[in-house]
Write a structure and sequence with these properties.
This protein is α/β, with parallel strands linked by helices. The chain has helices at residues 7-11, 40-52, 63-82, 96-116, 147-156, 176-179, 202-211, 231-234, 259-264, 299-315, 317-335, 365-374, 387-392, 409-419, 422-425, and strands at residues 20-21, 25-26, 28-29, 90-93, 134-138, 159-163, 184-190, 215-219, 238-242, 253-257, 275-278, 283-285, 341-344, 356-360, 377-378, 380-382, 398-401.
Length: 429
């Protein structure tokens, strides 16, 4: 397998990958779509912040507070630059789930306030929903980009619709002109499926949504860590992703949105830090991004995520994408050699990422995962928080391998070798 990255050299930066599991076996970590491991540079960045500059940001006048604020806002600028954004258009959240909920609650909150005649930010009319308005998602969405929109519909009377899947695990866009129409107010979809690995065509969906004036939200959890992304060139209104899926710490997510979108959104969580003026009767709110960052923020996590951006940029995101494509090609070829194994999702490299779901004939995915785990191979099993997508593909659950920058062909081969034993272990024919 030819690759532009030396995965063995990369692996030296990830101490956890040196540990043994299950009685002394080598750890083969193939679950990066769930969460990635962290390099020393990220671990050191968070530790150094706590050792030298820990303080509450934006609040104190002492030196530590100034250093902490500088570290926090410097991290915002660094992370924004990683995706081609302005720092003022990047909001920190706990994770992508919260980022997507922030967008969904903008509609719930604006609609509820409008019904009572309460004041709204200038331009917030685009977030006010009426009975019969439509919100469009896809059948492959992670629950984080489905359940919040179900809730919005339940609260406002809007109608949820979705783009269906083809048997190959791609979006069926044949009826897009009907699905996106004059009633469509929101189009929210994943750029790359965590279940199927499918990389969706953004441009035609954006063009159709723009034609009717719908607001466009993109879930990029499985794309920002794996390919070069320039959010401004995507043509969408908002993009959500998580730090922990791109070598960063847990507890931090990102929401990028256009300046116009953020300025017109009512707040999601209220309290300290996000206010402009507070009286006993009412409050006014700060300009974005502070409007959406109530409470003491996740400073160490932001510093760690900025270090993760430095690490990935040093590797080169084009090389990261090429390395994953090589691993995916190797994995698909090897999986095809195992009797009874069926890939759930695209079986070629066209518009496909490295999350590879599969089933083993006659064996439940949880049992597949148990056998692989006994060999030191970490994969994900279940519906991957994409239950409707699993149902659409005719499977209750799958086993998923998802290699990343620290994996190589040997990791895939060891997984395939263990997979070859699964049917024998469970007596499947």
């Amino acid at each position: 397998m030819s690759s532009p990255l030396d995965a063995r050299r990369v692996r030296e930066d990830f101490p956890i990958l040196d540990r043994t599991v299950r009685g002394g076996g080598r750890l083969v970590y193939l679950d990066s779509a769930a969460t990635t491991q962290k390099p020393l540079a990220v671990l050191d960045a968070g530790r150094d912040y706590y050792l030298t500059s820990n303080a509450a940001v934006h609040r104190g006048a002492h030196q530590l507070a100034e250093e902490a604020t500088e570290a926090f806002e410097g991290a915002r600028a660094r992370i924004a630059a990683f995706v081609g954004a302005r720092a003022d258009d990047l909001v920190f959240t706990r994770n992508a789930t919260e980022s997507l909920n922030l967008m969904a609650y903008a509609f719930s909150n604006a609609t509820a306030k409008a019904a009572r005649g309460s004041d709204l930010p200038k331009g917030a009319e685009r977030f006010v929903l009426r009975e019969g308005d439509e919100i469009l998602v896809t059948e492959m969405e992670h629950h984080a980009n489905l359940v919040p929109w179900q809730e919005v519909c339940a609260k406002t009377g809007a109608v949820l619709r979705w783009i269906p899947l083809t048997p190959e695990g791609r979006l069926d866009l044949s009826d897009l002109d009907r699905l996106i129409n004059e009633r469509t107010r929101v189009v929210s979809f994943t750029q790359q499926s965590n279940l199927l690995g499918t990389v969706n065509p953004v441009a035609p969906i954006v063009d159709a949504a723009r034609a009717v004036g719908a607001l466009i939200v993109l879930d990029s959890c499985q794309s920002v860590p794996h390919m070069p992304i320039d959010v401004a060139s995507l043509g969408v209104d908002a993009v959500a992703w998580s730090g922990h899926k791109m070598l960063g710490p847990t507890g931090i997510g990102c929401l990028w949105a256009t300046s116009e979108t953020l300025a017109s959104m009512p707040p999601f969580i209220t309290g300290g830090s996000m206010i402009e003026n507070v009286t006993m009767e009412s409050s006014t709110y700060a300009e974005p991004p502070k409007r959406f960052e109530a409470g003491v923020p996740m400073v160490a996590q932001a510093v760690g995520l900025a270090a993760a951006c430095d690490y990935l940029d040093a590797l080169g995101m084009e090389k990261v994408a090429a390395h994953e494509a090589a691993l995916t090609a190797h994995a698909l070829t090897r999986l095809a050699e195992v009797p009874g194994v069926a890939v759930v999702g695209p079986t070629d490299l066209i518009d496909r990422g490295s999350a590879i779901s599969f089933t083993v004939e006659g064996v439940h995915p949880h049992d597949v995962g148990q056998v692989l785990d006994s060999s030191g191979i970490a994969v994900r099993v279940g519906h991957h928080c994409a239950w409707p997508g699993c149902r659409a593909m005719g499977v209750p659950a799958t086993t998923r391998m998802s290699p990343y920058i620290y994996n190589d062909a040997q990791d895939i081969d060891e997984c395939i070798e263990a997979l070859g034993r699964v049917r024998a272990v469970f007596g499947a024919r």
